[in-house]
């Protein structure tokens, strides 16, 4: 069921007309549907129903909005965090420290210490030296840090090269062939409870084959580690499941993914962790923007909107596709380019796209913007930081306000010698 659907000729978010939100909050704005978040969380978990011990940790980088996290905490999700900032958000949302896993290729010493002090559930180590430092910090505190080694399985995830993480040349994980010796050395350290391995090969994966190949390599590694006498009780299989962005696209469902996981891991006898981000949040949000001008173009008209690449960076960064829809569709189609006001030629949301005829003042949405949308926004061109609204049924609230560039335009930020 689509919670962003037409009712009486207008697009609604659940029971709230999007035009009402635009009228009250202004544009551009992100709008999230709590019902969709809940449904995605449940569908993901149900997909894994055949797997005995499962922990789901939402990848907070996909959408760190506190209200969104609160919904997922209510659905029993923990968090995959990559900074102390994300850890604090997870805790503030009501997620338990033990349900937080700390990933990331560059955790600082201060961050490792803060996460130990918070008592998080797992550290995913990216290199041997990080394990040594974590062991020392834990020992100083009289603690034992629960940790796994993130390995790089050298598998091509078949996704955009900028969001691929599991090939040997990527910066993530340690080479799988070196994992047994590094594991053996780190396992000896007091202060560390090295209990397993982790893998994450990339994002927006539209085939299960690379995931299955990576998981099979992990299975072989688990057997090798056990043969060497190590207790392996935890395996983190990361995130990465793709979502449909284009009409008609059908990436593998959480049920397909769960069936593959159940088959591949059936004799692993470990607790399995998952770090889904996009599959939970992407289609639970839209980015709404208003048409400023329709400017004649050489081949197609330019629909200039008030949202831009600083609000939604994915198109400029990865040539990503987001479906464009009028909030009040006229039914009369034109082929147009849709672009924002930022002074970059890459600030274009859609090229030669068939869309409803629109005019100045009309509202349009870019769909599938609930993941890696607001979280990647900036104030480039001194544009305000984009606000976010959460809808649940007929309720809605601003859950992150528009932050004006004026707030940082203070004389205090000018050093004395320039005054
Ligand atoms: C370690 C790790 N876990 C989880 C994720 C979430 O990925 P996705 O949003 O594709 O599920 C990412 C992002 O690619 C990641 O780097
Ligand atoms: N930010 C990327 C995904 C990166 C995944 C995080 N490792 C996107 O919008 O598609």
UniProtKB/TrEMBL annotation:
The protein's name in its UniProt record: Diaminopimelate decarboxylase
Molecular-function GO terms, alphabetical: diaminopimelate decarboxylase activity; pyridoxal phosphate binding
Top class in the EC scheme: lyase
Active site: 343
Function of the molecule: Specifically catalyzes the decarboxylation of meso-diaminopimelate (meso-DAP) to L-lysine.
Keywords: Amino-acid biosynthesis, Decarboxylase, Lyase, Lysine biosynthesis, Pyridoxal phosphate
Record field: catalytic activity: meso-2,6-diaminopimelate + H(+) = L-lysine + CO2
Domain Orn/DAP/Arg decarboxylase 2 N-terminal: 37-282
InterPro entries, per database record: Ala_racemase/Decarboxylase_C (IPR009006), DAP_deCOOHase_LysA (IPR002986), De-COase2_C (IPR022643), De-COase2_CS (IPR022657), De-COase2_N (IPR022644), De-COase2_pyr-phos_BS (IPR022653), Orn/DAP/Arg_de-COase (IPR000183), PLP-binding_barrel (IPR029066)
Family assignment from sequence similarity: Belongs to the Orn/Lys/Arg decarboxylase class-II family. LysA subfamily.
Keyword DNA-binding (UniProt): no
Residues that bind pyridoxal 5'-phosphate: 240, 275-278, 372
Residues annotated as binding substrate: 278, 314, 318, 344, 372
Pathway(s) where this gene product acts: Amino-acid biosynthesis; L-lysine biosynthesis via DAP pathway; L-lysine from DL-2,6-diaminopimelate: step 1/1
Subunit annotation: Homodimer.
N6-(pyridoxal phosphate)lysine: modified positions: 61
This enzyme's EC code(s): 4.1.1.20
Gene3D superfamilies assigned: Alanine racemase (3.20.20.10), Lyase, Ornithine Decarboxylase, Chain A, domain 1 (2.40.37.10)
Needed co-factor(s): pyridoxal 5'-phosphate
CDD domains named among the record's database cross-references: PLPDE_III_DapDC (cd06828)
GO term, biological process aspect, one: lysine biosynthetic process via diaminopimelate
Top-level taxon in the UniProt lineage: Bacteria
Record domain Orn/DAP/Arg decarboxylase 2 C-terminal: where: 30-370
